[in-house]
Design brief:
Distance between the termini: 44 Å
CATH topology of the largest domain: Tachylectin-2, Chain A
Radius of gyration: 19 Å
Helix content: under 10%
Order of helices and strands: EEHEEEEEEEEEEEEEEEEEEEEEHHE
Strand content: 35-45%
CATH class of the largest domain: Mainly Beta
Largest sheet: 5 strands, antiparallel
Number of strands: 24
CATH architecture of the largest domain: 5 Propeller
Strand order of the largest sheet: 1-7-6-5-4
Number of helices: 3
Shape: globular
Length: 354
């Protein structure tokens, strides 16, 4: 069953700073965190991405530069594409706005809520209502591979996809969810000769409800998440829901909790690789980017390279020492405002694999 999704008129938020094209002035009002999460988290509406055609689709931070956000524009249409926009960060390293306008990176016809990196930094995306999975090779300006998911048994039409991150049960496996049926699938992939990947099998695992779009996995070090979990943007319900995951990285429906509601068209989702903050786009209600502060990386001491490499080592210690006394900088591990002895102690205490 096809579902028509029509965006509402868009709003614009501007800032007088020369470099900032858009910054939030207040926390978002329409979106409401569930009471059990409201104490630890805060919702901030970053507004529109300058120069990005709406409605918005999936989003992910660039693998080459964590200060660049990749995001789908003109989502669900034949002219849809992936765009890049530089983000502006505050002294706590969190995103506070956008610098300049979005620029086209690659065409991605009908891109929907799924956009993520797979093995080899290949960009994987989902497309609605055509029910396909697209793949874009690094540095390329158009899809190198488009796979018909209907042939593999995925209910038409898909809405999203995500790889389970390292450190979580089921790490490395590809998850696909149908927007129309809310069915959740586990997919197996294998390398192809051209650098893309074959999808060799798809198995239906569960049903998450609500018309799933964005998917992110949440480390249990975050407040309110005692076990490895997944957050799912539920477009049809205007909500974001949290689920515990099983040994395969699949959500357990009986554990569903409301995380955030009051949304119009919760769409793509990602985690900021610098801060761990939850970032998502909206398809309707103005086509905006919204983030939730309060999340943290499972290993904030892993400061080198930017975004981390999974290990706290001599490189991270050198990065802190090289930034000694600096303010508003990434190696300020404890976010105290400046790099000092406490940051050195934090790195030493976390030494080893994250």
């Amino acid at each position: 069953m096809s579902v028509c999704r029509t965006p509402r008129p868009r709003l614009v938020m501007l800032c007088g700073g020369a470099l900032l094209a858009s910054v939030p002035t207040t926390t978002a009002v329409a979106q409401q965190l569930a009471p059990e999460f409201a104490v630890d988290y805060e919702v901030v509406d970053l507004g529109e991405v300058p120069g990005l055609p709406g409605p918005y689709g999936g989003l992910v931070f660039s693998a080459d530069d964590p200060d660049v956000l990749l995001i789908g524009g003109a989502a669900n249409s034949s002219s849809a594409a992936v765009y890049a926009v530089e983000v502006v960060r505050g002294c706590d390293a969190g995103v506070i706005g956008f610098a300049g306008e979005a620029v086209l990176v690659a065409t991605a016809p009908n891109i929907d809520g799924g956009l993520t990196y797979g093995p080899g930094d290949v960009l994987f995306y989902t497309a609605f209502p055509v029910n396909v999975l697209g793949q874009i090779l690094p540095g390329e300006g158009e899809p190198a591979r488009i796979i018909d998911l209907s042939d593999l048994g995925v209910s038409s039409s898909t809405g999203t996809l995500q790889f389970v991150p390292a450190g979580f049960p089921g790490a490395g496996s590809l998850k696909i969810a149908s927007y129309s049926s809310s069915d959740w699938y586990d997919a197996t992939i294998a390398p192809a000769d051209d650098g893309t990947f074959d999808v060799t099998s798809v198995e239906e695992r569960t049903n998450v409800g609500g018309g799933p779009e964005g998917i992110v996995y949440i480390d249990p070090s975050n407040p309110g998440f005692d076990v490895p979990s997944v957050i799912v943007c539920q477009y049809q319900q205007g909500e974001v829901a949290a689920f515990e995951i099983d040994a395969d990285g699949d959500p357990i429906p009986s554990t569903e909790r409301l995380f955030l509601d009051g949304l119009v068209g919760a769409e793509g989702a990602t985690l900021d690789p610098v801060t761990g903050e939850f970032v998502f786009s909206t398809f309707g209600g103005g086509s905006r980017v919204v983030l939730v502060r309060g999340f943290e990386l499972g290993c904030p001491e892993d400061v080198f390279p930017r975004g981390g490499d999974g290990t706290v080592s001599f490189d991270d210690l050198l990065e802190v020492l090289a930034s000694w006394g600096e303010e508003c900088t990434g190696p300020d591990v404890d976010r105290s405002g400046s790099v000092d002895f406490d940051d050195v102690l934090a790195v030493l205490a976390a030494w080893g694999d994250c």
